[in-house]
Amino acid sequence: MRRSSDAAVPSGGLSLTGLKPRQNKAFWNCQLEAFVPLHWTTVEPCKQHRYGQNHPPLIFMCGSNRVVPYAPKHAPTLAWLYLWMASAALPHRVISLLNRATGKERGRLLYISRVIVNNYRCLKTADVELNPGLNIIVGNNECGKSTLLEAIDLALTCQLNGRPIQTELHPHLFNSEAVADYINALIAKSPIAPPAILIELYFEDHSALAKLKGINNTVKADLPGVSLAIEFNPEYGDELANYVANPLLIRTLPIEYYKVSWRSFAENPIATARSIPIKPSFIDASTIRNNAAASRYVVDLMKDSLSKDQKVDLALSYRMMKDAFLDNDKVRGVNEALARKKGDITEKSLSVSLDTTSRASWEVGVIPHLDDVPLMLVGKGEQNSIKIKLALESSADSHLILIEEAENHLSFSNLNTLINHIAERRGTRQLVITTHSSFVLNKLGVDSVILFHRGRAITLKELKKDTQDYFMRLPGHDTLRLILSERAILVEGPSDELIVQAAYRKLHGKMPLEAGVDVISVNSLAFKRFLEIAVLLDLTVAVVTDNDADIAAVARKYQDYMSKSNIRIHYDADEKCRTLEPQLLKVNGRPAIERVLGRTFASDTDLLDHMQSNKADTALKFFTTQEAWTVPGYILDAVG
Amino acid sequence: MTYTQNNTKEIERKFYGHTTAIPSRIEIMTWFTFLLRELARPYRRVMHDERIEGFRWAEGRSVPYVPETNTAAHYFAGGEFIYSDKVSKFICECERLTGGAVMRRLAQRFDHVFVDEIQDMAGYDLDVLELILKAGIKLSLVGDHRQATLRTNYSKKNSAYAGTNIIKKFHEWHNSGLATLSYEQHTHRCNQDIADLGDSFFPNEPRTRSLNDSVTGHDGVFIVPPSQVVTYVDRFKPQVLRLDKRTPCDGFPAMNFGESKGLTFDRVLIFPHGLGKKWLGTGNLIHVEKLLPKMYVGVTRARFSLAFVLDGDASIPHAQTYSQ
């Protein structure tokens, strides 16, 4: 029995909706080349048409077995193909094939759109939306950027450090806060369920991923995806009860009683990483484990960039080399000598051979060399950039590249080369990169940045439209300073910045930056924009502002932030002293300031005039002076 | 896909006959694997809170007195094992509650779905097939309703289309334009005499034309008197078949009709059971009306000769009495 729609011919030909017009010439050519072999393998009764020796054969076919010949004089542009598709009355099946090969489906990439992590290492909860292309994850040390990359890799491969997660389970994979909550609940005799790790990767809805599609995920979205859960195995209920009998003795979780389940959102088990069409290359530059692992890792990456034939050739030559080893006269002589010792060592005959078990394939015996130096002996920075470049060269078209701190072990000029390479060769692949370097950020583009802080991630898209525009225009540097600092003090201008720095040094005996406190000078209109990010990321921020002789206006301006525990607004309530300079005069008096400035003035008004017309100079004098001076109360509060 | 694991293996073997490996874009699975993995699990949470770990096989009807409103107990044993006779019903409910998400996913998942031994499908399976058809997914169903010896379930639903009557459902689909029904009316296996005997079980169905016209010197349908059985077996080495193990076969190694489904032998010798003897003697189908599919399978296994052990005359078409 067969459905009859097969033969139905649509009247309007092909709909071209969903195909964005692109002017790029290279796009048309490269898409067409990619299209040909795919088409070739999917369409059965077809005729082949050659249009020149240097091109692959181009095949067209129609349901009615009418073959449309291609004019060999012209180059095969995708534009031509679209025209042909639109004008010919083709059966549904052909259109869907062509559409898939060239159009919507083909243009759409396989990518991870969202990551949700619970209780994995330092990420108690994390929910991150990713861009289809470039993602630059920026955040403080220890904020969990690397953990996020590790989690993505883990959920795609079910491997940790290159080994199956089942053998790599250890108690510290679990978020320490969640474990502490669990133990405290036990101590308080109000037990809760043992903590579980969950990593969910949501993919773009694409028919190539339909096998993984379903609604079995935290947010109940009908999307393809995978989830990896490390959870308590209820079959060990009795053992767990014994283990936690005295909660005061417990420090870690009994991971022996935990199981790993790796499933699609359709809730079917995932047999191997091959079942997930998105294949990651995880380049972890910050920690190179050991030489053997590093080299195997590079071989793995190298393998991806080799064609099937090349791989077979390598495997074959390796095996032939082994055979040749045994045929060697000297080796044969050794084996004959060994054979004569039969009985001395064992009753069986002894001989030497090369390892021919499946483990001993070429991947194990082959070591990558750089300029004839084995890779493990090359500097770490060079190793890193090789890994990154290899990953970028690999051929799979649904490739995800995860790069951890590309700037590690690299000199500035090498970093520059590498980042240029990444920007050029990334193509359409999804790339997630973590960085500390504002250079990397600026080079790759601030618009792809994801600000990450304690599991919260925001993109500039989440900010208000005008705030977003503001930061898009700003060089990446200032935004980055705010995100990377443990604590920030926002001030109104360079003179305020110097006074606040000096005040901090007076109070703590060291410069604020040494303590991770960044004093950032911000245009007074931009305060609220920075505070918006601070609220989203839960950053600790103090604002030092002039009262501008209108306390009510200041209170109005910051009313949204007054109640936030992480944000403090500091200003003086005395409307008569509207800016920094009168404030300094008020608390120090004229003689003290005259000593700091090293000159005298006829009156307070003269002094104030001088200070206000030489703001920066005055501030610098306060910053460098050995004389004693008093810090205005509201500034002291801010640095305290 | 197909109902039994044996038939699934058979399909895989056929593929290996054509090619060195099954292409990755072709997936072969049993009907129940398909139901569980591709249809029931992905959207189960609109019906049920826990993952469906697997099946609980229902021999007849599972928990007939638990109402639908008690979802967990109606569909599941122990909360996580779905009753095999309810899985298709569960899928239909998921499809309804998600507003068609189950079939939308299936349409993305497969370009073409093939089901073999379609006559084994029963109950809500037919509704699932209808959903697939209505979703516009290309679906090819192959089978022989005359060989309806097995059933995926014994649900009350669609019992009017159970067993051989499944053909009525296909006619309905054909008439409403949902599908086109076409008969394959020839056999490469049986010669015309044997095919005619098979057809005689279903007088209302189209006749089968044999494409096997080879002549071996002993061709067609034979009656062997019990006294001649030993020499007959000695001379022709037939495969001995029987209805089931309760039928005595004089100690010859025998195979049940049901087991022989899908198999081919050059020569077959059948030891008929009690009612089978009555049918042979009178030619009246009333004696075997409950066993028509099994009888049909049994008599249509042979290429060249089909013989019945019977003391006396037979009134079935083309029967010749064997004598040395």
TrEMBL record, chain A:
Q: Could you list the residue ranges forming a coiled coil in this record?
A: none
InterPro entries in alphabetical order: Bact_Antivir_Def_Nuclease (IPR051396), P-loop_NTPase (IPR027417), Rad50/SbcC_AAA (IPR038729), TOPRIM_OLD (IPR034139)
Which CDD domains does the annotation name? TOPRIM_OLD
**Name the UniProt record assigns to this protein:** Predicted ATP-dependent endonuclease of the OLD family, contains P-loop ATPase and TOPRIM domains
Q: Which Pfam families match?
A: AAA_23, OLD-like_TOPRIM
GO MF terms, alphabetically ordered: ATP hydrolysis activity; endonuclease activity
Name a biological process GO annotation.
double-strand break repair
Tell me the keywords, alphabetical order.
Endonuclease, Hydrolase, Nuclease
Query: Which segments constitute the Rad50/SbcC-type AAA domain?
Result: 115-165
Classification of source organism: Bacteria, Pseudomonadati, Pseudomonadota, Alphaproteobacteria, Hyphomicrobiales
Domain OLD protein-like TOPRIM: from-to ranges: 484-548
From TrEMBL, chain B:
UniProt keywords, alphabetically = ATP-binding, Helicase, Hydrolase, Nucleotide-binding
Asked whether the keyword Ligase is assigned, the reply is: no
- The UvrD-like helicase ATP-binding domain extends over 101-148
GO molecular-function term, one example from the UniProt record: ATP binding
Keyword Nucleotide-binding attached: yes
- What Pfam families has UniProt attached to this entry? UvrD-helicase
Q: What is this protein called?
A: DNA helicase-2 / ATP-dependent DNA helicase PcrA
Q: Which organism is it from?
A: Microvirga guangxiensis
Lineage here is: Bacteria, Pseudomonadati, Pseudomonadota, Alphaproteobacteria, Hyphomicrobiales
